[in-house]
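Re: weekly structure request thread

Next one in the queue (236 aa):
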Amino acid sequence: MTTHFIEMGQGVIAHSTDAVGEEAPAVCTSPLHSCTFISGYNKDTGKYGAYHYPANCLLKGESHDQAVENEIKEWKEDLKPTSINLVFAKHIENQENKERDYPTLINNLFSNISQDPARYDEKTVEGLFNVIDGQKFMSTSMQDAYAVWKMMKEEKIPIEIKLEANAAMVIKNGALHTGNPVALNVDTNSAIDLKHQPAGVHGVNQTLTIIGKNRDSLSQQQPSQSAKQVRKVLSH
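Done, posted below.
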């Protein structure tokens, strides 16, 4: 199994010619405190990938980060996913309601909002979520989670939602699976660490694309070219 590790603010796209059985490729990342792990797979091309979305970057106002929005758009444009999974940060386990299917409830809530957005202001969304849960177990705000979901929904394909403190994706038997790395049998210790790699196209056959940059620590942030810029340079 080839596993790549990405840090917050990074995305990766790779091509799998070997997505069956024990050699299934995977992507893992650092713990989700308030972020979202976006993963996708194109069953027609064999491309797969993930993006570790930094919290609040899609919200309107001072926290909005146009670079992050552009990176997600670039990730989607390159991958052209036929399936998308989202893992939102799980903050607190609701011990009293372990049997409730929170991902489905949240997905249904977001679907209702998208169909009639004028009815759902910020307070209404938070209120509906609190009714669903009874306590806030997700550190990501509902507005932020909805912003990510809405951007992914533009692809007009089904979205699977999960809630985890640690996340990974794996392509196995021609399908995308996401969730806790342990449950997916993803060995994070042997992952190829991409957090210090610049954005661009990598690999002997140029089959690995890194998008964005490590935003885990301000001291680690370095200017980086987008994958498109690098492709343009390579083509000349």
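Confidence is low (pLDDT under 50) at residues 18-22, 92-96, 134-140, 218-236. The first strand starts at residue 3 and ends at 6.
Next request, please.
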